[in-house]
Design a protein that fits this description.
Strand content: 15-25%
Largest sheet: 9 strands, mixed
Number of helices: 8
Structural class: alpha/beta
Distance between the termini: 45 Å
CATH superfamily: Glycoside hydrolase/deacetylase
Shape: globular
CATH class: Alpha Beta
Radius of gyration: 19 Å
């Protein structure tokens, strides 16, 4: 009984404190790991969080069903090209029309067929330039790339989020040499500065390695974001949430 009242008192204090939410983190997941993405939804739901899932390859009936279900659960979805070809290299070599026809149109047509509205895109291997941005902004609002050669975290002021943007993110996984304590500090900075920070990974699974997100790490980060009143949102929510920025 004593433990119950202590827990109740803590929850009451948190609710009554009215601490404002500040900034946001966007976790994005590339390629296609539909069954595990859906399984991870329970974890996102536990922390009132959403993510963005960016699909590569042919949009089959099964993939479209998963994408619709993710949207239904409050997440954002987007595309990651039909064959995962670098935009910069292939546009330079074959031109914009070729890239659109082979990498974008098949996925866009499939989404239209299945009644899927997608406004987000992740660059294969995070390779982009102004020419590729101009092409892709004809079809998408938010283009996810990387943090660049410096590999330093990028913080986007929440009160300056635009309707069309390139959002650079950092990778999470053993391949990217990420450390949970460093990631928590980056979340702290996003909350402190009322900014949006973006990360990317691929699969979500217990003990995942290389380019994938360990479930344990994801929960630790979601729990930390909640503790510092940092929103965890999908790209579709970027222009909708209110910030405390001036």
């Amino acid at each position: 009984m004593k433990k119950f009242f202590m827990t109740f008192s803590i929850l009451t204090a948190l609710v009554c404190s009215g601490a404002p939410m500040r900034g946001a983190v966007c976790f994005t997941f590339d390629d296609y790991h539909g069954p595990n993405w859906l399984k991870a939804d329970a974890l996102f739901k536990k922390y009132n969080a959403h993510a963005t899932f960016l699909v590569s390859g042919e949009i089959t009936d099964a993939k479209a069903a998963v994408m619709k279900e993710l949207q239904k659960r409050g997440h954002s979805v987007g595309l990651h090209t039909e064959h995962h070809r670098d935009a910069t290299r292939f546009i330079q070599k074959y031109g914009e029309e070729w890239y659109f026809k082979n990498e974008l149109k098949p996925q866009l047509d499939a989404c239209k067929k299945h009644g899927l509205v997608v406004k987000n895109f992740a660059y294969p291997n995070n390779r982009r330039d102004e020419r590729t941005d101009a092409l892709l902004w004809k079809y998408f609002d938010y283009l996810r790339a990387g943090w660049g050669k410096a590999k330093k975290p990028l913080y986007f002021p929440a009160n300056k989020i635009e309707n069309k943007m390139v959002l650079g993110g950092g990778g999470i996984g053993t391949y990217y040499n990420t450390r949970v304590e460093d990631l928590k500090k980056q979340l702290d900075e996003a909350a402190r500065t009322d900014s949006v920070i973006v990360f990317f990974s691929h699969n979500i699974a217990p003990g995942a390695v290389r380019i994938h997100m360990p479930t344990e790490v994801l929960e630790e980060l979601l729990k930390h974001a909640q503790s510092i009143n940092l929103r965890v949102i999908g790209f579709d929510e970027l222009t909708k949430f209110k910030t405390s920025g001036k």
